[in-house]
């Protein structure tokens, strides 16, 4: 019966789209100025425009937002559902902080990722989110976790990443490698060691990556594509029938859940037997020690792996490409690194120019291109946009980084110096930039608790790699930005590695 109902709804929806696309005129606009919102029709809203542009949503939204005086647009979807997209920093602050309680992720969003992330911290609201947030925040502020993470980072860079790049550099004639893939493998090793206390050893390029890694890739990609379906009944019907991409998603999620659950049971056994002291420093051990159940712990660590596995690698991939296009900037990073005797924890804190370069790379190519909430009640955004209960409200870091009103006429230039201000006594220092203008780590109560840890990791990798090697992209074409759950560079970043002459 459920299958027949789903089929009926889907065919009815497609029939409406066909009929209205052929016979319906756009809704009359009451305003005298041309609207920056896409053309909307009765009942079906803007779904025709959305479907036409679904494979270029980033540019479509950005173009519309540039035309909007308020940097906010409204996209009407089927049956009066609406998506409000904003690149206005005041609106972002209202959504993420001022009226935080009115903008949870909401069931429509958590449904998209619920199969994979369950009730994990990045896919939950209310008390479930709050309790996980308090526990995670406590752990992330502990010095022992920071020291544990830094030691893992140092060992992974010195004993695995650098040897892999050295091997490519020493190969006769130079071997072409995919730097994005190497950095993704590196990041997966780090996040698994920190979160699970488990070493997948992904940088051993002589053997295939563990099944868990491939399953994460498949699950993340298909879950993200659910959100771009103009009619959500399509993916829900495919899930009901267990066909196509939804069948592949179910298989991938099973692999993820089974693999992580096996690691959890092994960890519990190790802890029960006393284990080694080092076994008790990872997040999994800490969560289990706090008395949380196996399923809750599984969802939590999967969320942390998902958040940390590709975000830092994506940011670094784009930075290495941008540096290849801006040699003067690369020289300044090298100067900063060479002024440090060693890249210790305190040395990294002082690497302000490298941090500015990372921020500038993420402004142009944010690891998470957009993020959505759902209004719990009617509201009015600071720019006057009316929000109705149930509306999807999306803030848009990718578009914000391309707004002249936010970053000036030179928004399209890679200029790390925009992150500095002159001080009469000290010279240039990093200036404080509002997280609502630059929300790549979110902001407000949901601000990323691993933000500083991420900067530490990225600065250490960038400094360690650039001080030893020249990174030379093989292609002269501009890379393509692909926005899935975590954005990546289409086709990877193929490079030659050359040892740097000192």
UniProtKB/TrEMBL annotation:
Gene3D superfamilies: Cytochrome P450. GO terms for molecular function: metal ion binding; monooxygenase activity. Heme binds at residue 448. It comes from the Eukaryota. Its main location: membrane. The keyword Heme applies. Residues 1-23 form the signal peptide. This is Cytochrome P450. Its cofactor is heme. CDD domains: CYP86A. GO terms for cellular component: membrane. The keyword Transmembrane helix applies. Pfam families: p450.
């Amino acid at each position: 019966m459920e299958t027949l109902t789903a089929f009926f709804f889907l065919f009815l929806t497609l029939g409406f789209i066909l009929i209205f696309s052929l016979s319906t005129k756009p809704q009359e606009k009451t305003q005298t100025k041309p609207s920056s919102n896409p053309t909307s029709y009765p009942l079906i809203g803007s779904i025709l425009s959305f479907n036409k542009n679904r494979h270029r949503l980033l540019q479509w939204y950005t173009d519309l937002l540039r035309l909007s005086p308020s940097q906010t647009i409204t996209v009407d979807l089927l049956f009066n559902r609406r998506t409000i997209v904003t690149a206005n920093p005041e609106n972002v602050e209202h959504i993420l902080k001022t009226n935080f309680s009115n903008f949870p992720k909401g069931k429509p969003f958590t449904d998209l990722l619920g199969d994979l992330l369950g009730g994990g911290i990045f896919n939950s609201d209310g008390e479930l989110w709050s309790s996980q947030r308090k526990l995670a925040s406590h752990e992330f502020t502990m010095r022992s976790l920071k020291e544990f993470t830094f030691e893992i980072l140092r060992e992974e860079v010195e004993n695995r990443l650098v040897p892999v790049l050295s091997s490519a550099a020493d190969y006769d004639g130079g071997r072409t490698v995919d730097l994005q893939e190497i950095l993704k493998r590196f990041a997966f090793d780090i996040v698994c060691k920190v979160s699970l206390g488990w070493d997948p050893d992904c940088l051993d390029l002589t053997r295939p990556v563990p099944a868990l890694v491939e399953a994460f890739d498949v699950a993340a990609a298909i879950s993200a594509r659910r959100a771009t379906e103009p009619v959500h009944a399509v993916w829900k019907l495919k899930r009901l029938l267990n066909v196509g991409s939804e069948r592949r998603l179910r298989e991938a999620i099973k692999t993820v859940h089974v693999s992580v659950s096996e690691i959890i049971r092994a960890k519990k056994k190790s802890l029960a037997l006393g284990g080694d002291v080092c076994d008790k420093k990872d997040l999994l051990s800490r969560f289990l020690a706090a008395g949380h159940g196996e399923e809750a712990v599984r969802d939590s660590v999967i969320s942390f792996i998902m958040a940390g596995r590709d975000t830092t690698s994506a940011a670094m991939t784009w930075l290495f490409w941008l540096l290849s296009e801006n040699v003067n900037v690369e020289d300044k990073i090298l100067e900063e690194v060479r002024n440090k005797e060693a890249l210790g924890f305190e040395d990294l804190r002082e690497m302000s120019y490298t941090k500015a370069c990372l921020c500038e790379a993420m402004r142009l190519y944010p690891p998470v291109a957009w993020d959505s909430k759902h209004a719990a009640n009617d509201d009015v955004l600071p720019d006057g946009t009316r929000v109705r209960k149930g509306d999807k409200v999306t803030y848009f870091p990718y578009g914000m980084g391309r707004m002249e009103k936010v970053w000036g006429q030179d928004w399209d230039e890679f200029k790390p110096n925009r992150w500095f201000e002159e001080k009469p006594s000290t010279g240039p220092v990093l200036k404080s930039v509002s997280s609502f203008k630059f929300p790549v780590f979110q902001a407000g109560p949901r601000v990323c608790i691993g933000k500083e840890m991420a900067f530490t990791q990225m600065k250490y990798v960038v400094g360690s790699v650039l001080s030893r090697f020249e990174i030379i992209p093989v292609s002269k074409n501009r890379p393509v930005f692909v926005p899935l759950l975590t954005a990546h560079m289409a086709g990877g970043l193929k490079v030659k590695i050359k040892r740097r002459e000192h």
